[in-house]
Design goal:
207 residues, mainly alpha
């Protein structure tokens, strides 16, 4: 770490890297090296520089479930959490490819924002958060309500949220079929489809 500090102090450009490699900031995020991330930030490194796949340091931190690095990049470095890679994935969406049960910073961040929108009856904002990867099944730790529970009494809001869920699931199922080349869906996906079918019957048939 001291060597990196000395090199940066001497004027070495941290954004320069070989085309086949990850940018130094992304390597540090992928490996969980928070002290290096802080040094790069100190020397005004471009904190959301993209690699060849369009992924940023935040993408790599989310995928590897390095909570503190994700937190630092968002809260201290103010990186853009909506940057898309070449597969049109935000850092949160890219991180979900890793099915680890460990929590990531953006997952908690988005869930908090989603439930905050629900408590404030801001359902258009909630739909936008779902479209960006927020977990619509997340429960409010106080009320035990999900965003669907909050929107239940607001027909227009519920329709906005239902539409966002449909679009997200349609994209995920399409990707799943292409990547896995399997006919059967995961149990979780089946459960989601059942829930959405119920929503469709209770919402859209009224029109």
């Amino acid at each position: 770490i001291q060597a990196v500090d000395c090199l940066l102090q001497a004027g070495v450009k941290p954004d320069c890297y070989l085309a086949k490699d990850l940018p130094p900031i992304s390597q540090a995020a992928k490996k969980g090296l928070l002290p290096l991330i802080k040094i790069f930030h100190k020397y005004r490194t471009t904190m959301d520089v993209k690699d060849l796949n369009g992924n940023t340091a935040l993408h790599h931190a989310e995928f590897a479930r390095h909570y503190e690095i994700g937190k630092y990049l968002v809260e201290n470095c103010k990186v853009n959490i909506n940057v898309l890679n070449h597969h049109k994935q935000t850092a949160l969406q890219y991180g979900r490819i890793n099915e680890s049960s460990e929590l990531s910073f953006l997952r908690i961040y988005y869930e908090a924002k989603l439930l905050e929108a629900g408590r404030g009856n801001k359902f258009v904002a909630a739909a936008d958060l779902i479209a960006k990867g927020a977990n619509f099944r997340a429960k409010d730790p106080i009320s035990e309500k999900t965003i669907l529970d909050y929107a239940a009494a607001d027909k227009k809001g519920l329709m906005s949220i239902a539409q966002a869920i449909f679009e997200v699931q349609k994209a995920e199922l399409k990707s799943y079929r292409q990547d896995a080349a399997l006919e059967e869906l995961h149990d979780e996906q089946k459960k989601i489809l059942v829930d959405l079918t119920k929503l469709e019957k209770t919402i859209f048939t009224e029109h």
